[in-house]
Amino acid sequence: MKDAEPCPCGTGLPLTACCGRYHDGEPAPTPEALMRSRYSAFALGLNDYLLDSWAPETRPTALPDDDPTQWVHLEILDHGEDGDTGRVHFRATFREGRRWGALEERSRFRREAGRWVYVDGEPSVTRLKPGRNDPCPCGSGKKGKACCVRG
Question: Which of 1, 11, 97, 108 has most Cβ atoms within 10 angstroms of its Cβ?
């Protein structure tokens, strides 16, 4: 992805002005900003950033380098913080081959040494079956047949 292209998290800002700066080492100022930057890291395959922004006690030892998931749309449903703890409720739409799905999660975050980290979440995955004349699940506002849904 080129830095001038819109950030995958959906703000409409260029990657460098949005999540790219957090990927480059600037601390995310809020749990929501960290969540958006982690979503973008998943979309861009930035596994080192994902592991670095994960709380040590829940961090996996590694992430797969060949993940077939294509992340296409992020919605922040709710978010907040209270001192050094934070929460983000989000829905992320994805595609794996011709199959569509949505991951909805209520995530917990904690501030450690001035940096927010992802602790854990309560995920729920739903399979989507978009029709050709339904709105495209990518969030473009177009009909599926005119966008990402092939049938």
Answer: 108
Identify the DSSP state of 145.
G
Instruction: Encode pLDDT of 118-140 as tens digits.
Output: 999 999 999 998 888 888 888 88
**At which residue do the structure tokens 């890291």 appear?**
41
Centre a 10 Å sphere on the Cβ of residue 58 and count the other Cβ atoms it contains. 12
Greatest C-alpha distance within the chain:
50
pLDDT class for 40, splitting at 50, 70, 90? very high
- What DSSP string describes 68-83? --EEEEEEEEEEEEET
Dihedral over Cα of 29, 31, 33, 39: its sign: positive
* Three-class DSSP category at 25: coil
Helix, strand and coil in the chain, % to nearest 5: 20, 40, 40
Residue 110 three-state SS = strand
Amino acid at 97: G
Separation CA 48–CA 22 (nearest Å): 12
Q: How far is CA 124 from the centre of its chain?
A: 14
Tokens 């961090």 -> residue:
59
Q: Quick count: other Cβ atoms within 10 Å of Cβ 10?
A: 18
